[in-house]
Design brief:
Structural class of chain A: mainly alpha
CATH topology of the largest domain in chain C: ABC transporter involved in vitamin B12 uptake, BtuC
Low-confidence stretches of chain C: 535-539
Radius of gyration of chain C: 32 Å
Order of helices and strands of chain A: HHHHHHHEEEHHHHEHHHH
Number of domains of chain A: 1
Keywords (chain B): ATP-binding, Nucleotide-binding, Transport
GO molecular function, one term (chain B): ATP binding
GO cellular component, one term (chain B): plasma membrane
Mean pLDDT of chain A: 88
CATH architecture of the largest domain in chain C: Orthogonal Bundle
Strand order of the largest sheet of chain A: 1-4
Shape of chain C: flat
Number of helices of chain C: 21
Number of strands of chain A: 4
Order of helices and strands of chain C: HHHHEEEEEHHHHHHHHHHEEHHHHHHH
Largest sheet of chain A: 2 strands, antiparallel
Structural class of chain C: mainly alpha
Largest sheet of chain C: 5 strands, antiparallel
Largest interface: A-C, 42 and 42 residues
Radius of gyration of chain A: 21 Å
Distance between the termini of chain A: 13 Å
Distance between the termini of chain C: 97 Å
Number of strands of chain C: 7
Domain ABC transporter (chain B): 25-265
Oligomer: heterotrimer
CATH class of the largest domain in chain C: Mainly Alpha
Mean pLDDT of chain C: 82
Protein name (chain B): ABC transporter ATP-binding protein
Helix content of chain C: 55-70%
Strand order of the largest sheet of chain C: 4-3-2-1-5
Chain lengths: 370, 269, 539
Amino acid sequence: MADLFKKLGSLPVVVGCLFITTLYVSVCNLAFPEGSALHVSTYTVTLFGKYLCYALLALAVDLVWGYCGILSLGHGAFFALGGYAMGMYLMRQIGDRGVYGNPELPDFMVFLNWDALPWYWAGSDSFIWMMVMVVAAPGLLAYIFGTMAFRSRVSGVYLSIMTQAVTYALMLAFFRNEMGFGGNNGLTDFKDILGFSLQSDTTRIALFATTATFLAIGFAVCHFIVNSKMGRVVTAIRDSENRVRFIGYKPENYKVWIFVVSAMLAGIAGALYVPQVGIINPGEFSPLSSIEMVVWVAIGGRGSLYGAIIGAIVVSYAKTRFTAIMPEAWLYALGGLFVLVTLLLPKGIAGFFPAIAARFNQKKLAEVKS
Amino acid sequence: MSREAGSPLLEEENIKPDTRHGVILYVEDVSVSFDGFKALNDLSLYINDGELRCLIGANGAGKTTLMDVITGKTRPDVGKVSFGQQVNLLEMDEAQIARAGIGRKFQKPTVFENLTVFENLELSLHGDKGIWANLFHKLSGEQSDEIAQILHTIGLVGECNMQAGALSHGQKQWLEIGMLLAAKPRLLLVDEPVAGMTAQETERTAELLTSLAGDHSVVVVEHDMAFVRSIARKVTVLHQGSVLAEGSMSEIQSNPEVVRVYLGEETGE
Amino acid sequence: MLRIFCLTLSILLASFSAQADEFSQLVNQLPSKSLRNITPLLEQIAAHPDERTKTVLTEILNGDLYYKKNNKQVVSIRKTPDGDYQLTDVLTGDDLGTASKSSMKKVKTSNRIRSTIRGLIAQLDLTHKNAEVRLAAVKQILDSPDDETIELLTQLVTKEQDSTVADLMQTAIGVNTLKNGNAEEKLAVAKALRDSLQPAVRNAMVNQLALLDEVEKSQLSATEKQLKTELTSAIDKIKQKRSIYEFIENMFFGLSLGSVLLLAAIGLAITFGVMGVINMAHGEMIMLGAYTTYVIQLMFPQWIDYSLFIAIPAAFLVSGFVGVLIERGVIRFLKGRPLETLLATFGISLILQQLVRTIFSPLNRTVAAPEWMSGSWQINPIFSITYNRLYIIIFALTVFFALLAFMKRSSLGLHVRAVAQNREMARALSVRSDRVDAITFGLGSGIAGIAGVVLSQLTNVGPNLGQSYIIDSFLVVVFGGVGNLWGTLVAAMSLGSINKFLEPLTGSVLANIIVLVGLVLFIQKRPKGLFPQKGRSAD
């Protein structure tokens, strides 16, 4: 039994925390009336729902960067693709309630004088199909990019800049109206999801709970991966890719695999994010937002899954506070964080918990002795 | 894609070099040049099955480049390299060559510093190197025994759960040798195994390598002449990218050509 | 009563200035004329030899000539940014302060009167003593001809001394003939103008051909048939010539874009090539250079023409200094950790951007172009080279070769190259690699600053100016092959050209995307770029 606990590591703690938060938030939001001291406003629920999406995204970034050493400056692209897939579905859910009242076409297409949906919008009214797309679209992009980049052994700084170039190119593309994704404005004005109004408190709570569940599942999946032998191969690739090759593994295949898994997680995070914030636009592709994700992980502690979650929540919370009080200062703070963390705190917040690290080592010991 | 990495590999696992002629490695007329500099110049070398061969030569003689060519890191401009008679190494990448049964120990010990000694050995263990197999991999009793055995051989039982990065230089050398053993290769390429080892450790390494020969074929690159003398049955001298002389240690030592270009230099130091 | 007033006013003016002559009297009569009887007065004004004639007529034509309600003084007005009107005395050019529009009345015109004025101005210009003015006037007629001006041209062409002007006049007359002449005349013109590159000629020919095409072939006269073949071949020939010039023009645009890329990338080529670290704040070094130009211009508003020459070294020093600070303050602590360097320098880039926003406001600033940079060199009617782009190409190449010479010839350059190839070895040979790093970084950043000076001449200066250049620069460097300055040159120029050749086909955004994606694909195929460094130490 003790062995099992050690093997699970931080998994029960994280899942427990998520469960308690969800329970607390939903009870306090639904059971206590507005004005009560215990009431949690729907605004707060949505805000924290957003943070949890970021946390899932941070997990995805940590999986490739912290464990495999691939510094992706383009995870925003996967996040946004997942978000757009969800947005397309929500767009079709609007039906004839749009400004132009067209039952088939979203408003922006009517505005552009299009008379039919483009082919890639086919099936966008099916929830299941679009949920497949949520993982398939980012997964495919990651697979194509990853296969080409890793096969030709592009790595390090080169790879980082290329991921940034890809997301930059996608941003430019999505800004174009001709792309059929709403151009500048993106997709917005959603009404409901699966027939439930997006404005209602219950839907918001349900979305929050779904996000928390997916975060817990995502954490469990990542935990399983990094603690498997495959995870150790990945860590070995991070430390010395060539050496791994000489003992018979194909690092490029492992890298592609982990990159695709990570992209899919990011896509799911994007899909959960869109109904909660109510909009998806090309700004999500901007290189800056991708690099912000990296800073969450850097601050939380890369190579530590719970660190990534803490980092995402702490930094996003700080951003919310900062931009409310003095918007000017946020970029200074963010920039300063980049410099300070890389210089002084290479292991991030998670590095603050040496006790936990020690427990980690004990766990390995126990594993071997068994 | 990931599937592809899993199943076809099983076939590769089955690649067995054809050594009916008693030769396990053929290197024929190989040339490699970097920007006009000929690192290997029309080099030919044959390693017999079960043989322990020492490669010596001054810096820049092409020893490491030769290792690189055999293990797939560098592609030769011309020439043929095959494992046994039929396995053409030039068509395979590093991972495939490793899986076919050629292990390499690097000049500079490279172990996975953030993994424990145990995990380093676990990763090196022969077996399926595909993604899915490793994702759901559980160490079998047999494999655990094997690792325990190797730990014993390399004298790192106590350090089993230490991070490899915390090992001393000599211990890292041993760990690398251990990783080599875990992979159970047919052919071992060992680049400067005793650099940084104490006299005692050197002696143990010599013993180990000698005992490996027979079941395995071993190629050792070494600068330490005393060490070479202690293990070598057959020595190949490389000079400026090609084979200068080949023979027993005493033959080599009396070869005037060799004395001039290599041993002569060394005594001059 | 009104006239008496005017008269007294003009007398009054006459007493003010000895120049208050006939011409002033004519102009001062403008307020009193109605639409019906203003034309003779305008003709009188036009016929007057006074130099101010054209100004007055142009102001009327543009609807900017007013008179004050209280004293009937004729003024020209310009709208000020605050919505008021700036008054100028048309006769003396004196500044009369601002006034509201309600206190003034416009000198009325109609379409017909305006066309008369245009004719009058054309005549004025066509007989101007300066050949360039005459040439400009003929050009205008060529673009919008009417019967009266053509008639005027026919009279003037015989007297014209300047051959260029005379040729152009012939062309204009020819174009008119193509429209209105008979078949023989047209045929003659089509033969005569087959080498002309004037767009108006081509348009007229195409129009004629279209007219002829409408008529049944059998109904065409022999001359018309001949005219038709003549026109077709002339149009083809013109088309051919145009496509050649179009190509040259694209090439030129491409090279000028390439020069900007070269300037932006070359600094990165040095820092990345030598130190192996990527400075994500490189774009901000460019931005700092651009702002330095802006500040220098603010400091010396009277020397706009020459301030660039101060700005270039100043930008080099400012950006170079910041670069050295970054290297000493952050990068040297992150040796051997390129990804961390990337993140830290990205943080620095955010701080620098925000700093600029705080100091200069987030709004874009305009840097004025000096006189000698504006304008263009008109090589022929359809092809001109703008001076600013031409100078930028020359300047970029100068910087490139200066840097190349520095790297190849100077001892510091030798040290830099030594460190780039083998840091340990260089150190063993007592090259102070720390100092070399700092200098390299300063040099790379300084050149980025110079790129900023150039960019300030092409676009507005804003905090985000440099941001997009980091990706482009990096791709240029990698495309050309890291550590190879010539590669950077070739890469920058070819990317610039590819971009400009794609642009007409796809639009600029799509061209940008295509080039980006193409580059990403290329680098995946050949990670070492066009001109890789070979050798054992290369990996």
